[in-house]
Design a protein that fits this description.
alpha+beta, five-stranded mixed beta sheet, binds copper (II) ion, 10 strands, 4 helices, about 260 residues
């Protein structure tokens, strides 16, 4: 039933475990809206019939005498309260407060810019090299300190973010210039990228594939071009291979 309904709504493909909650909420809200829509339509036609001038040649100065409308309003408010308190708020709490442990996750830094996505990995050692705002430049958007040995194996990529399947991903989102927003629809995540802030968001990819990244804030004339960013979900082996080869290439070119 749920699957059939999400197909009817034209929900985009879902490829993360946390995203099912988001879809459920969207589906419940639509059920409520359908109920309200049908209810209002029925009431509309009832009112046309019941209060037509032919049936009521004389105005009634008293009006409604029962409390049915109050009870219906209370019931609708009750359903809305259930959706908010038991579904929406816990969902949001999990998204912003129940982060997976960093040592069991793929941790990535993302700096958005007009009009692309920079991403940075800690490399095989799992430790990010030091960063400093003062070092940020056109070619060093993360402000990486080249003197820190922990940063030697760090890997920086443009627009092509790879993550292993089945493992939580934590992305620290920031921006180099204006406000952007990292939106990966298949993962059901959306986080504003704000200059000067580094805001974490997380998801757990469940399906291998290549998913488009969108910018969800109108950020300038090339805004639409930010769809050039992609999240590739692959096996752990493929992910390790890709990361190691990028690290090796980086160290080679530095020597
Ligand atoms: Cu943007």
């Amino acid at each position: 039933m749920k699957e059939w309904f999400s197909k009817l709504l034209g929900m985009p493909p879902l490829a993360s475990s946390n995203g099912q909650d988001v879809d459920d909420l969207i589906i419940y809200v639509h059920w409520l809206m359908i109920a309200l829509f049908v209810g209002w339509i029925i009431y509309f036609f009832y009112a046309l019939y019941r209060f037509s001038s032919a049936r009521n040649p004389k105005a009634d100065y008293h009006g409604v005498r029962n409390h049915a409308s109050s009870y219906i309003e209370l019931a609708v408010a009750g359903v809305e309260a259930v959706l908010l308190i038991f579904i929406a708020v816990p969902l949001w709490a999990r998204a912003v407060d129940k982060f997976p442990p960093a040592d069991k996750s793929t941790v990535i830094q993302v700096v958005a810019q007009q009009f692309a996505w920079n991403a940075r990995y800690a490399g095989p050692d799992g430790i990010f090299g030091k960063q400093d705002m003062k070092l940020v430049s056109l070619t060093n958007v993360f402000g990486v300190d080249p003197s820190d040995p922990n940063g030697a194996d760090d890997v920086q990529v443009l627009n092509e973010i790879h993550v292993p399947v089945g493992k939580p991903v934590i992305i620290y989102v920031s921006s180099k210039d204006v406000i952007h927003s990292l939106k990966i629809i298949a993962m059901r995540v959306c986080q504003d990228a704000i200059p000067g802030l580094r805001i974490p968001c997380w998801f757990t990819p469940t399906k291998i594939g290549r998913y488009q990244i969108n910018c969800a804030q109108l950020c300038g004339s090339g805004h639409a071009g930010m769809t050039g960013g992609f999240l590739t979900v692959e096996s752990q082996a493929d992910f390790d291979k890709g990361l190691n080869s990028k690290t090796a290439k980086k160290i080679q070119s530095a020597e």
